[in-house]
Amino acid sequence: MKKKSQIQMAETIAVLFVFFILIAVGFMFYGRVILGNVQSQKDEFVQLQSISIAQRAMFLPELQCSEDIVEEITGCIDLFKIEASQDIIAQNSRYYYDLFEFSNITLKQIYPNENNWVIYERKTDTFESKFITNIPVSLYDPVARRYGFGVLTVETLSK
Amino acid sequence: MRTRKNKPLFFRKAQMEILGLAIVVVIVLVAMIFVLRFLILDKEPEYRKPFLSSEMASNMLNSFLKTAAAQCSQLTMTELLVDCAQSKTITCSDGKNSCDYAEATAKSIFNKTLSEWRVKYGFSAYTDVDNPFISLGEGCTGEKRSKLFAIPSSTATVYVYLELC
């Protein structure tokens, strides 16, 4: 009788052991799923942030072509505004940090000549992800009144 | 007839054990379905790509068509393409006609941009879709983002099409 109850006790303990292991595995898996969801939301935020910074750069009035002073032309950068905007951006780095955060914005002329300009640069060594967005743009020469072809590259770094 | 109460203890115990086994099997199946759902079917979402591809196709074509040809009296690519579709009367200072010049410029720009970024593309300019007068790139077989620009001219509408894979 005593031996039988000991066996039953051992059986109950084994069942409880397996049960708790299953519970632990379940919690571990649940934790992983929750962590995965958090990571996915973070990725979404970082990717949308990079798009947002690229759009801010693309529609920056300091660079954008304009007609009759007021009308701004999308997808176009005024070649004469570039140098002026480089100085303004360097002098007001705090204001532009709020707009572009940790990112590098460069403009490359591809046609008719090849040329490069750094519009904004703020680096960090401790970044987790890096996104590069290339935006084809027209480069307008207001003196000659003609368009060239260029690419605005926005490299965003996120922690 | 024997009632449930009258069943021997052995049978009831066996039924309970089978029921326990069935519950374990159900739990394992549910766990397996969850594991498959989260580990295999859960792909990394891509938010940037669809937006960037459609923006890129549109901006690329828009900027290309506005671009002034350096050796063709600063005529735009739009004007060269229209001439190419109509009379081919324009000859550039390097001796190329409007078709060849527009094609060479498009090739040069796409090589320095799309090909460098490893983006496969298909570019064509046509009045008749089956017979394009300019055709560049391999084109896409699967998923693609495209942009079509229509340029009105005196004889026929010129279409400029760019697809990014």
Explain this structure to me?
- The complex is a heterodimer of chains A (159) and B (165).
- Chain A is an alpha+beta fold and 159 residues long.
- Chain A has one domain (2-158).
- Helix content of chain A is 49%, strand content 34%.
- Chain A has helices at residues 2-58, 79-91, 93-100, and strands at 64-67, 71-78, 103-111, 115-121, 129-141, 146-158.
- Chain A has a 6-stranded mixed sheet with strand order 1-2-5-6-3-4.
- Chain A is rod-shaped.
- In chain A, 27% of the residues are buried.
- With 165 residues, chain B is an alpha+beta fold.
- Chain B has 2 domains: 8-40; 48-164, no CATH class.
- Chain B contains 4 helices and 4 strands; from the N terminus they run H-H-H-H-E-E-E-E.
- Chain B has helices spanning 9-39, 48-66, 77-85, 98-112, and strands spanning 121-126, 134-137, 145-151, 158-164.
Please write out the topology:
The complex is a heterodimer of chains A (159) and B (165).
Chain A: H1 2-58, E1 64-67, E2 71-78, H2 79-91, H3 93-100, E3 103-111, E4 115-121, E5 129-141, E6 146-158
Parallel strand pairs in A: 2-5
Antiparallel strand pairs in A: 1-2, 3-4, 3-6, 5-6
Chain B: H1 9-39, H2 48-66, H3 77-85, H4 98-112, E1 121-126, E2 134-137, E3 145-151, E4 158-164
Antiparallel strand pairs in B: 1-2, 1-4, 3-4
Keywords:
heterodimer; A: 159 residues; alpha+beta; 6-stranded mixed beta sheet; 3 helices; 49% helix; B: 165 residues; 2 domains; 4-stranded antiparallel beta sheet; 4 strands; 45% helix; rod-shaped
